[in-house]
Amino acid sequence: MQQQQHSASALLQVQDLRKWYRLGGGWLGRPAQTVKAVDGVNFEIRRGEVLSLVGESGSGKSTIGRAILNLDPPTAGQVHFDGKPLAGLTRRQMRPLRRAMQMVFQDPYSSLNPKHTVEELLSAPLEIHMPQLTAEQRRDRIDAVLKTVGLNPAHRVRYPHEFSGGQRQRIGIARALMTEPKLLVADEPVSSLDVSVQAQVINLLLELKQRLGLTMLFISHDLAVVGHISDRIAVMYLGRLVEIGDAESLLNNPRHPYTRALMAAVPNIDPRQRRPRELLKGDIPSPLAPPSGCAFRTRCPHAQPACANGVPELRMVGQQHATACIRDDI
Amino acid sequence: MNHLEPIHFVAAEDSAQVDNILEVRDLNVAFRTAQGHVHAVRDVSFSLRRGETLALVGETSSGKSVTCLGLLGLTPPAPYCTISGSARLAARNGKTYELVGTPERVMRQVRGGVASVIFQEPMTSLNPVHTVGAQICESLRIHLGMKGRAATDRAAELLNQVGISDPKRRLTNYPHELSGGMRQRVMIAMAIACEPSLLIADEPTTALDVTIQAQILELLQKLQSDNRMAMIYITHNLGTVAEIADRVMVMYAGRIVEKADVVELFTRPQHPYSRGLIHSVPRLHSGRVRKTPLFAIPGNVPDPAAHPPGCTFGPRCGHFEPGRCDAAVPDLESARPGHLVRCVRWPEIEGAA
Are B204 and B116 in contact (CB under 8 A)? Predict the structure, then answer.
């Protein structure tokens, strides 16, 4: 596949990434089961671009984010960051790389220690990754980053509970920016925020991308949000990519029925255009017993008997646009 | 606070319009907190017809949830929380209940029987140590006196009604064995178990995936038209409002700032706050994808214990005019028939973007 080619412009390359979890098999004697949370995923993120991973809960998108950062080391497959393989690195060897790849979490309430002031929260990454800085340099850096994310530097003495949800997410972003990372992994950074504040945070991320030249992996379940921020979009279903492509091409010409279903689920803002929609039936199947062949066929309105024969591979359907659906006629 | 004499059962003829099943007049809810007196809901009045959906829209701490908690008597007891005003709710059997100042004994009949509520997070509103079946049957037993086989059969029927397949087996499941969407369906089944005349849905889809959100919205619409239930739909996302509501009430800092029919509100929003909320909804672009900045309402909701003078939205408003906007709290004026707006500048800014 073309996406696997090593190109100099790629900051992150993910090859055949797998993350399996074993369940059971303990002393109670139940047979062990394997959950294939991520099962053979390939993509790369080019320098300065925003790649979004989209899918429902249980599709494996957050697992990928964690596997890339080695927070949860992958079962198999390779992750190259800046040309260097991450597999088999010790914690000590991983540390300088951690500085270059940071994460923003979904819930700004549980991801900030309530007992630490903003200053303490933001100086922790500096103490670990830039111990050479003097106290004064550290303070300057905190002030600068707080300004960058649109917070008042005077608020550095405050505790997280003194901020609103949107402001806390800004603190989370500020913490990720402290070490001057190259890659930011943002895992559903706006889904717990009010819509009006969501827009503020998305705009901030876009601005940071432009100003600091950040590369970003943006994880979300909402295609409408993703459409505003992405250069490229990858759609996941039950641990695999089902479609990946340039944002414009993918949103204007979605080729996989699952991508279309996600688009149809976005509420229509015009009450005059209410109409019955083609809704996706049911929930995502259990990853313990995924359907044979194409995992989406049990919910797919276009499924045929042939869809049960083997897992469809991603195939190119345009320049930089690939889908894992065997049908061309839909 | 003037506590009205509780009127538990008023004859049906008493209510002026028989078709209005809920009449809320001058509802005020205030909390006593360590930070001082917080007036969370101020002078909220509205009515609701049978089969109608009213969307209550606003950001966190706008007072939208407290309005509904206050109606159902789910706020803390006095003196920590005081409620005044009047709210009359008509049951299906013709009885009318006054909800403000009513003893807990009567409210227990109202909640779950005449009015039910679905909360945002189904995992925390279901009891984790009881099966789904036991929790649905509890409501049937308390309100309708159903027991044993009859209750189980009815519970299975309800699960079937909310689109859960194999309902008999699902009744024996515990909440953790269900997906988020299924849990919310179970919550809905419990809420409609006694065929209430009013259903309050407090951000029922916020914790769900967009695909499941679309399913739940469709289910609510279907149940509502089948049962002719009135619904109050609380949300911060105007996108879903366009899909489900008949009328919309926008709240900010405890007050209604705009109220209109859904098409009117989306096509001719008058209050700058409503406009901001509409513009900040992310949309799927057809045609060229442009990464233009999304419209965002600057700033944050004011501290409920320290509101700015005059119009509370003033400090975040692009049309703020010193001397006029901060002079006094604007009145709720009629912009057009059935369209109320609380902004002193609405006639001037109507044409502006």
Answer: no
The nearest alpha carbon in chain A to B203 belongs to A194
The candidate with the shortest Cα–Cα distance to B26, out of B7, B3, B56, B9, is B3
Residue range A203-229: mean pLDDT, rounded: 91
Q: How far apart are CA A133 and CA A146, in angstroms?
A: 18
- Phi, psi angle pair for A160, to nearest 5°: -55, -35
Confidence at residue A28, expressed as pLDDT on a 0 to 100 scale = 64
B154 burial (CB, 10 Å; 0-12 / 13-18 / 19+) is middle
Other residues' Cβ atoms within 10 Å of the Cβ of residue A93: 11
C-alpha torsion B272→B275→B277→B281, nearest 10 = -150
Contact call for residues A291 and A258 (beta carbons, < 8 A)? no
Rounded to the nearest angstrom, the gap between the alpha carbon of residue A126 and the centroid of all alpha carbons in its chain is 24
pTM of the entire predicted model: 0.87
Residues of chain B found within 8 Å of residue A283, distances taken between Cβ atoms: 179, 181-182, 212
Dump pLDDT digits (tens) for B303-323: 888 889 999 999 999 999 999
- Predicted ipTM of the assembly: 0.84
Q: Which of A49, A169, A194, A246 to mutate to test the interface with B (most CBs of B within 10 A)?
A: A194
Say yes or no to pLDDT of A275 above 80. no
From the number of C-beta atoms within 10 Å of its C-beta (0-12, 13-18, 19+), residue B331 rates as exposed
pLDDT tens digits, A108-128:
888 999 999 999 999 999 999
Q: Which two tokens stand for residue B179?
A: 């997906």
